[in-house]
Amino acid sequence: MLLRFVTNNFLSFGEETEFNMLAGSYKTHKHHVYNVGKVNLLKAAAIYGANGAGKSNLVKAIEFLQEAIKEGGIFKSINDKKFKLNKSNLKSNVSFEAEFVIDDTILSYGVSFNNNIVFQEWLYEARVTADDKMIFEREVSDSGKVIIRVAAKYKKTQKQKLLIELMEESLLKPSELLLGKSEELKIPEITTFKEAIEHSLIVIHPGSRFQGLVPKLNSSKRFKLFTNDLLKAFDTGVTELSVEGISLDKFFGDKDDDLKKEIINVLESGKDLLLNTQEGGVLAVKENGKYLIKKTIAQHTNTLGEVFNFDLSEESDGTQRLLDFIPAFDGILNTQATYVIDEIDQSLHPALLKALLTKIMSDERTKGQLIFTTHESNLLDLNIFRQDEIWFAEKDTNTGASQLYSLSDFKPRYDLDIKKGYLKGRFGAIPFLTPLEHLNWKSYEAEEERL
Questions:
Q1: What is the DSSP code string of 198-248?
Q2: For a 10 Å CB count at each end of the chain, is N or C smaller?
Q3: Distances in Å between the alpha carbon of 99 and those of 1, 114, 424?
Q4: Closest C-alpha among 290, 389, 395, 405 to residue 40
Q5: What is the pLDDT of residues 207-219, one digit of tens each?
Q6: What per-residue string of b and e applies to 271-283 under the rule 16 or more CB within 10 Å gives b?
Q7: How far apart are CA 233 and CA 237, in angstroms?
């Protein structure tokens, strides 16, 4: 689970900016705190702020690091993503640092790069009551030589030493991450951290479309019951979600022959394949010698008790958005994964969203984390969240750079009306509005006539 994330010189973050899930000393909602080793982690974080304040940029920064780790490097120039409002930043490195708690161990990973060249990279086992333990460090010397240091226990044999030397000389390209060489290095901490970032960190955007539904509906009766109960509870009109199998040729039609061949090759290797389509996630499988595409359909029942099937694209925006979240909410309840949702309130009725989050946050059996951005002030409720679970993003009026800070920085009373205080600007992170009477709309019309 995520402990800390730091970014510098990326998009609207002009300086080093930290977001963390560390629990404070508050006594409320004790079940929101996971005691993991010697660290207390929070279950959730709600991030507020005006449009353009940097909320979504934090999500983009997290996802950028995740994608770089998945791909094994920075293969395109990063320069267009640097903070542009300060000229000195255009020459500076972009950097990220992420700390994850994995099986009571804290692993801290960082990387610093410019253009598409990695200049520094490191992985440490972070410890609360003792010095951190280096797993590896990688840097570029003034002469341009790559220098790699690894923990003594991973360079005991001649073979291990030779591998590191080869990495320094030629095996590790300037744009590649050492973290991406986990199969060659066979260092357990590298493999563990890489897998955590790739599989236990899930980012959901406003445009995401229910990617995780089909595999779970197809394989888990428990998940299917969970999903259908949730849809009924929120009166979506959907009586049941089920999975429908369509032949590969029928689903793709006469087009995409090359894609169909690629899919068949994967299926012939004995693996199923999850595909991202305009209809959301679909699952390609081989069953009884046939190539099938399995997709989710929604069943509705009319007043006569007759059942009709609908494609998910025919459902309302609100129902579709709820379907995006169902795998996430199930994962928070049952796995130690971290879900990051940008604009959680998009297309969802405020009352439905509040009821849903209240249910999740009150559940004492959860295992995972939920981090989300929102404008929905009805969620600013200390009956739902702790003070340290509420964060704000705000633009510095002088520099234009984004800043992040927690409600706990203000040390509010537990009985304070947080929503009222926020809307009055007590905590910042709201739009700076020019008085409407100063907007001279008539002058625009006069200018148009003059032209």
A1: HHSEEEE-TT---TTHHHHHHH-HHHHHHHHHHHHHTT-S--EEEEEEEEH
A2: C
A3: 9, 22, 35
A4: 389
A5: 777 677 888 888 8
A6: ebbebeeebbbbb
A7: 10
What does pTM read for this prediction?
0.88
For residue 244, what are the contacts with CB-CB under 8 A and spacing of at least 6? 294, 295, 296, 297, 309
Amino acid at 175: S
* CA-wise closest residue to 71 among 124, 111, 12, 119: 111
* CA gap 354, 376 in Å, rounded: 9
User: Tell me: the pLDDT tens digits for 381-406?
Assistant: 899 999 999 999 999 989 999 999 99
Low-confidence ranges of the chain (pLDDT < 70): 210, 278-279, 411-451
Check residue 399 and report its DSSP letter.
Answer: T
Q: 52, 20, 12: which is closest to 39 by C-alpha?
A: 20
Helices (H), 390-440: 418-423
Tokens of 22: 């560390």
Cβ neighbours for 386, distance < 8 A, ≥ 6 positions apart: 23, 24, 26, 28, 29, 32, 42
Q: What are phi and psi of 411, to 5 degrees?
A: 50, 55
> What phi and psi, each to the nearest 5 degrees, are found at residue 284?
-90, 130
Residue 107 φ then ψ, to 5°: -110, 125
Within 8 A by CB and 6+ apart from 46, the residues are 372, 374, 379, 380, 385, 389, 390, 391
Q: How far apart are CA 236 and CA 159, in angstroms?
A: 61
Would you state the structure tokens that stand for residue 336, as one six-digit string? 């130690």
